[in-house]
């Protein structure tokens, strides 16, 4: 890590298999230069911090009533979800059917995984996303201009959930339980999103949009120089939708009208955002907004768990394109059809800060 060469630093860091948590545990007071964000990024962080309270917008928060809604309430929720998906690409949901107790256990499980003996974690360390369970730091470590201050536990949980004995002992059981409950919530959200597009409630589910799932247990250790790096660089999500469980620390931001807006944690809420694949099949009706996470400047680690409703980097021959029922002379097709595998090949060939969606625009 003492080399000034970016690629040599990244290789040395990767070979430790200890992640950013390992750097923090070593007692460093300055972050390695491979984590230094470009000047333009650091400038944008200062601009957000300087924004007056009157300009601090926030994404909508919607009440799902535990999934049980009368006709009028459902119409209102559908309208609000459609509006949020068109204008923001983000919204939060409360009364979503997942108990606070389960969410707290999930966050604690992720914290315990990342804070356990490094030698126990190392057996999961890999950059091979064909594996069902893997742990690493920075998915684009060797391609990005600057690394981000976080470590990740990744697990494909649907349609073929892993066996309990293949999962980390400290969090495997709660991961499987949380995944099942997320699938139920995901199906409800796809019904509401289908209706918001003017389609029948099962349209997106019948396209297998809700079928696959990969969960990421993100760990953002305290950063000794949070003004020099990011926790997660700007990107859009390679998914139909993403369901995010985040703790109380905050740091997530969405790009809205060319301004970075903080997404403040709401107790008991889950953050939902539209992914690239839903923007594509909705023909730009819904937007997959760029977002990022600031480096953690607090004294305790930040824990989050985004769940991508997608096959992510696993092979998938299914073809997707703009939904025919949404097209017209006034709304012509904007993307060519693609397979998920084509999309994943583009995604893995570049850094996460370069959205893959524009490669398929007509």
TrEMBL record:
Domain named Fe2OG dioxygenase is located at: 211-315
Q: Which cofactor does it need?
A: Fe cation
Kindly give the InterPro entries that the UniProt entry links to this protein: DIOX_N (IPR026992), IPNS-like_FE2OG_OXY (IPR044861), Oxoglu/Fe-dep_dioxygenase_dom (IPR005123)
Q: Which GO terms describe its molecular function?
A: dioxygenase activity; metal ion binding
Keywords in alphabetical order, please.
Answer: Dioxygenase, Iron, Metal-binding, Oxidoreductase
Which protein family is it in?
A: Belongs to the iron/ascorbate-dependent oxidoreductase family.
Query: What is the name listed in the Swiss-Prot or TrEMBL entry for this protein?
Result: Oxoglutarate/iron-dependent dioxygenase
Species, as recorded: Arabidopsis suecica
Q: What does UniProt list as this organism's lineage?
A: Eukaryota, Viridiplantae, Streptophyta, Embryophyta, Tracheophyta
């Amino acid at each position: 890590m003492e080399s000034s060469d970016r690629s040599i630093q990244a290789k040395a860091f990767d070979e430790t298999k200890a992640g950013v948590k390992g750097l923090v545990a070593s007692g460093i007071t300055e972050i390695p230069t491979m984590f230094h964000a470009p000047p333009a990024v650091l400038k944008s962080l200062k601009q957000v911090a300087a924004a007056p309270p009157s300009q601090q917008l926030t994404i909508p928060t919607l009440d799902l009533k535990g999934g049980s809604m009368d006709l009028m309430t459902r119409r209102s929720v559908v309208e609000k979800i459609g509006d949020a998906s068109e204008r923001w690409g983000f919204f939060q949901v409360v009364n979503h059917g997942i108990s606070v107790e389960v969410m707290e256990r999930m966050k604690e499980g992720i914290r315990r995984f990342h804070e356990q003996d490094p030698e126990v974690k190392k057996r999961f360390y890999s950059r091979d996303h064909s594996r069902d369970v893997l742990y690493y730091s920075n998915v684009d470590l060797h391609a990005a201009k600057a690394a981000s201050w976080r470590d990740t536990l990744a697990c494909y949980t649907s349609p073929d959930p892993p066996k309990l004995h293949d999962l980390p002992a400290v969090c495997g059981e709660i991961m499987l339980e949380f995944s099942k409950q997320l699938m139920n919530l995901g199906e409800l959200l796809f019904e509401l999103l289908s209706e918001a597009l003017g389609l029948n409630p099962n349209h997106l589910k019948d396209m297998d949009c809700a079928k696959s799932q990969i969960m990421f247990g993100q760990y953002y250790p305290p950063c000794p120089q949070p003004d020099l790096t990011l926790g997660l660089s700007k990107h859009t999500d390679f998914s139909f939708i993403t369901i995010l469980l985040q703790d109380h620390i905050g740091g997530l931001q969405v790009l809205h009208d060319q301004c970075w807006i903080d997404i403040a944690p709401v107790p008991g809420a889950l953050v939902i955002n539209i992914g690239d694949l839903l923007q594509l099949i909705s023909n730009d009706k819904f937007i997959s907004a760029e977002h990022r996470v600031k480096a953690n400047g607090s004294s305790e680690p930040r824990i989050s768990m985004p769940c991508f409703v997608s096959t992510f980097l696993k092979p998938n021959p299914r073809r997707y394109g703009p939904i025919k029922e949404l097209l017209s002379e006034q709304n012509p097709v904007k993307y060519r059809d693609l397979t998920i595998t084509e999309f994943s090949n583009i995604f893995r060939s570049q850094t996460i800060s370069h959205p893959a969606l524009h490669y398929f625009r007509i």
